[in-house]
Design brief:
Elements lengths: L14 E2 L6 E2 L4 E5 L2 E4 L3 H8 L2 H10 L6 H6 L3 E3 L10
Antiparallel strand pairs: 1-2, 3-4, 3-5
Bound molecules: zinc ion.
């Protein structure tokens, strides 16, 4: 007999990723950029697209692991999403 379990918690998305449109929930990690938020699944791609040559160079000198570039690039902007209602994004 199959048993159905309810979703762990009905969660309202707080916002969505600018890049892929995926819903972002409280507690999710995302990069807080001027236009909104970028999810962790996208920040690598976005970072690679937006990075300037010297930023890439700086990273490569410091780290070997290219997969971490997005995280490094967005580091100062990475936030754990809380209630964004009082956020001042325009
Ligand atoms: Zn995304």
């Amino acid at each position: 007999m199959l048993e159905y379990f309810p979703e762990p918690e009905e969660r309202e998305p707080l916002t969505e990723c600018l890049e892929c449109g995926e819903s972002l929930y409280k507690g999710d990690v995302a990069a807080d950029v001027p236009d909104g938020y970028i999810c962790r699944g996208c920040w690598q791609k976005v970072a690679l697209e937006n990075a300037k040559r010297d930023e890439m160079k700086e990273f490569i000198q410091e780290y070997d692991d290219k997969k971490e570039f997005g995280k490094w690039y967005f580091e100062p902007q990475i936030v754990v999403l809380e209630d964004v209602s009082n956020d001042n994004h325009e």
